[in-house]
Amino acid sequence: MGRLSTHVLDTSRGKPGAGMAYALYRLDGDRRVKLAEGVTNEDGRAGKPLLEGEGFQAGRYQLVYQVAAYFRALGVELPDPPFLDEVTLSFGLGEDGHYHVPLLVSPFGYTTYRGS
After folding, report:
1. Structure pTM?
2. 75: domain CATH number?
3. 102-111 confidence digits (pLDDT tens)
4. What's the first-to-final CA gap in the chain, in angstroms?
5. 14 phi-psi bin (left φ>0, alpha ψ -120 to 50, beta other)
């Protein structure tokens, strides 16, 4: 059975991105269907897999992270409007397996990859 998880690393501080809000959507044609939402824990991780077991289905998904709100809550002074407000990662799940989608982020840049 497949499984999807995520975590956030705050590269500007070199620490886990604890307290960042996120939401997971499944793309269904022109619609986005919200499947999960939460806030990262002290390790910068979602507290449980976002998809697993029978809830895991092949298809197109988006993870949306509330980056500006996270940095503002830390007291980081951001421009108005912020360079990064929300970060949306669009990706596909095509086969059973463990998909781990990390977000490495600072106020002015981000990267991701398929982790294990």
Report:
1. 0.95
2. 2.60.40.180
3. 999 999 999 9
4. 15
5. left
